[in-house]
Amino acid sequence: MGHTQHFNDADKLAGTIAEKLGRELTLALPLGLGKANTVANAIYAQAANDASLKLNIFSALTLQRPTVSGLEARFINPVLDRLFGGYPELSYALALKGGTLPKNIQVSEFFLLAGRSLGIPSVQQNYISANYTHAFRYILDRNVNVIAQLVAKRVVNGETRYSLSCNTDLTLDLLDARKRGKANFALVAEVNSELPFMPGDGDLPESAFDFVYENPKTDFLLFAPPKQPVPLTAYAIGLHTATLIQDGGTLQIGIGAEGDAAAHALILRQKENAAFREVIAKLSPGASGELGTFQTGLYGASEMFVDSFLDLMDAGVVKREAEGVLLHAGFFLGPRHFYRRLREMNDTQRAKLQMKAISYVNQLYGDEEKKRAARVKARFINNGMMATLLGAITSDGLESGLVVSGVGGQYNFVAQAFALEGARSIICVNATRGFSAKTLSNIRWSYGHTTIPRHLRDIVVTEYGVADLRGKSDQDVIAAMLSVTDSRFQDELLREAKANNKISKDYEIPAQHRNNTPERIAAALKPLKERGLLPDFPFGTDFTEIELRIIPALQFLKQKLASPVSLIPVLLRGLSASASARTEECIERMGLTKAASLKDKIYRALLRGALSS
Prior knowledge:
Largest sheet: 9 strands, mixed
Helix content: 25-40%
Mean pLDDT: 95
Oligomer: single chain
Number of helices: 23
Strand content: 15-25%
Shape: globular
Structural class: alpha/beta
Radius of gyration: 25 Å
Distance between the termini: 66 Å
Number of strands: 22
């Protein structure tokens, strides 16, 4: 489109884009953190105010501030104000949630915030099921003509450079398509001073961009989701997973409690090896696995650069370099201290962390010889919602057709695990989940939706152990899955397998797997928990000390809500409990010291009762 145009007024930029590109705009926004929110909102406003302008938005993982109510809102809203103060909500996301999206605007995403869009028909109807590596093709098929991305900026020897920073993932693939004449779009940069300037393929000259928007007044804080506490079940899964990682290997790890638990377990294995061996012996008596420290260390080839990779580097776990690099990744998202540390690294340190196109990280095609040489003994760790006794995995949606999140790169990594010599796919699944007042098994005989088919079954890990399924017969797979199933559901599942002639009629679950209970897990982990080796927040927290005291009380109340009658003793205890300074600090933090309404007085009593529990 010629020379780069600079703007400090987002509305004028949006007007120029509409003027130059015509009456139909197809706007692509990066997954997650890298969206140019200010520019996107200005383009949205243009279309919302002009019905003759058609706008199609293609994106994934639209980050939104959580909305909660009741007692939970009193806790989390001040935290969110600290973390997201000034963060501009995306107009299209608010319109989707409120059911007010104009008819001339359509939004399609290929990955959703987990569980946040189950009740939004337009999101469900316009969702595109896609592997992460295929998404850029679908963007091209829609004739994208605008890409708007958040970037970091710096001047080197008088030359202005811009970094794609957190989202090289699809943008680099799209730029390559444009270079080859397969696409024609305007690339828009929105400069953000908080974004780390990452080196490598995403370090681009000014000439790569058609438009640059920069205004200190709209230089917002980056989205930084608070860390969630790691429960004991996640720690058990993480500890089992850590025994599957070979020294000198390659690591992919994802976001969430299970990912944090696995990373922390690897650090325990390295720095507190005796304690690590001790807890593994209690969790899985007689089980074999990798228990030693890391001498050569691991190299990271991960779709997502999670913040725990920095802790793994600090601990000497991730230290094996491939082509001079410790980690190749496609995008990142994390807490505020993670962004700050990346910004404050020196160039030499940051050069060890290379952001690449998602086609590089998530598949072997292209530079295959180099990738194979680097990705030795690879372990691809991902999460699933459910698994069947025959080894199929459900990770992205429900059998009703409703989408919970998305496929993302999970299928890519499972395929890589089979394509690479010595590689394994590890899917972590919580054995049970709570539903209303019931506990349900996440291990099913069958389920009407599959993300990973059973012919690609590999390793499944629950809090009760490791089920190695690769290459095994259906009967042996069923036996392995039963061994990691919660014992409250084993008999029913075994009966179903026998009724369908998929396991011998005289098969019995071995005695050592007949005590798969939460109580056994809690007992096994208790010594390490008491020694402070399994902290609630292994990689730091944005919560204050008082807030950390409130969290268990709120979790306690949430569990009780499954059976509201069980709240009565808590309420009575709260009404009669004597006040303590520590309790009243929590009451004050929740804004309930001077509770006026009956509802707030009940909240105060419930909180006091929970804190005293």
